[in-house]
Amino acid sequence: MNPIPQRKIMIRRSSRQIELYDGNQLLACYPCAVGKNATPTPLGNYAVSTKVINPGGAFGTRWLGLSLPDYGIHGTNKPSSIGTQASLGCIRMHNHHVEALYNQVGVGTPVVITE
């Protein structure tokens, strides 16, 4: 799938929110879980590098791999962790939210992780 040119994902660690933009227009905002203090979600500019439906296990129903190896945005089998610092550095979302996000972005979509 080709990237949708103006789409961008912003992940705000401090507020534990994922925002999807089309240009400067906010399309959606979702709660998420981020890395624990010992295993923080890395700040920086990345891109969606892979998309997987039903990756299994703790990754819920969707996986959006980042250009930073071993990190991604994914669903969860622990929905009570959303809104907390709970992961080993990945970004967790409710399965229905990650499914919606998955359908709106392509490989190559920029992902910016800020404090």
From TrEMBL:
The active site is at 74 (proton donor/acceptor), 90 (nucleophile). Coiled coil: none annotated. Signal peptide: none annotated. Pathway: Cell wall biogenesis; peptidoglycan biosynthesis. The keyword Repeat does not apply. Keywords: Cell shape, Cell wall biogenesis/degradation, Glycosyltransferase, Hydrolase, Peptidoglycan synthesis, Transferase. Pfam families: YkuD (PF03734). One of its GO terms (molecular function) is peptidoglycan L,D-transpeptidase activity. GO terms for cellular component: extracellular region. This is L,D-TPase catalytic domain-containing protein. It comes from Desulfitobacterium dehalogenans (strain ATCC 51507 / DSM 9161 / JW/IU-DC1). The lineage of its organism: Bacteria, Bacillati, Bacillota, Clostridia, Eubacteriales.
